[in-house]
Amino acid sequence: MSSAATISSPVIGARPTDRTGVAYxxxxxxxxxxxxxxELERLSLPAxxxxxxxxxxxxxxxxxxxxxxxxxxxxxxxxLEQRPIGALWTDAHFKLWPEREDRARVPDVSFVVTExxxxxxxxxxxxxxxxxxxxxxxxxxxxxxxxxxxxYLQQGSKIVWLVIPQKEEVLVCTAEGKHSVRDIxxxxxxxxxxxxxxxxxxxxxxxxxxx
Amino acid sequence: MSxxxxxxxxxxxxxxxxxxAGLExxxxxxxxxxxxxxELERLSLPAxxxxxxxxxxxxxxxxxxxALQLALGxxxxxxxxxxxxxxxFSEGRYKLWPERNNQARVPDVSFIVKSxxPEDIWHSPSIxxxxxxxxxxxxxxxxxxxxxxxxYLEQGTKIVWLVIPRKEEVLVCTAEGKYSVRDMxxxxxxxxxxxxxxxxxxxxxxxxx
Lengths: 211, 209
Known about the structure:
The complex is a heterodimer of chains A (211) and B (209). Chain A has 211 residues and is α+β, with helices and mostly antiparallel strands. In chain A, 20% of the residues lie in helices and 24% in strands. Chain B is 23% helix and 24% strand. Chain B has helices spanning 37-42, 63-82, 142-154, 198-206; strands at residues 49-52, 55-58, 86-90, 109-113, 131-135, 159-164, 169-174, 177-181, 184-187, 191-197.
């Protein structure tokens, strides 16, 4: 917003400024609906803060979620070490709709092929990742998840992997359709030769200490 | 209910224990967790009442849901007129776990092949239907839906069709896995020759003219 440092008279709706003349918003974060991607970048928030029509929404990750996320990263990372064909990110923000300043999405894991990597790597890129991985949580609404998949696919993602921890299953979603995978996850066109063992992805950390 | 002899209650400051009064004390329906399939059949409730661990849960269909249910059920009915290989049910109630009296599920549409039809078709049968059609609603939780699919498949259902009105898509679920269908819905092994144009059905269900 164009924040000239005017000292606002106490008028309802007026936006106060701090001593540096930078406008800040009077409302608590959870009540605001006017947050922009630029402001989100400046705010000190958990990395997983997404932006839905100007509203900040946090993704809440359980330890199981975090572990699966790491396991996928490890498997994809091993593959990319052998075949450096793109970049692998965790909890990276994407301005999925380049013209919308009030929307940002944060896939749990994302992959962007080298040719499409943004020049400016210090700000949220206005693009969709080639691959988006979303690990589902117990609170996820069915239609909301389907909508999210379509948002990625419509904005240019080739593949969305919906990981269903409780079923040890991945729903592979592309523009052509969806199908489930329970053993070996592949993506022949985008990541040729990749074979992710879902057994490894869903393997639980052994908590028992050897006697 | 226990053998209820009608004793006249004397005015007292103390409420009599239900057993003393010869009555069985009942909590409001939504607080109870001890409902059995038999009681559910006796209660006057909407047809869509399901039973989860003794608790009644109602399915709330919206108009699009209701239209899709009729259309898919109608297609199945018409198919079965030509191919009498079994019976289709709308809101049929199933005791999915024969040994569990506190569980009942009500698929929007279900189909049972002839050879598996229960002899007593006046009470909720203790079987899983061969085909289940569930039309999803905006409030459905993702994990609950995939749990429900697995309940049917684990109890013997061959195919579950998850109808996603918002995406005009059906997720076909079998023991082997899940895949989406957007054009022609079929089930060659269970319903040979059955075919439904999803495009047509979704368009009709969502139309307002």
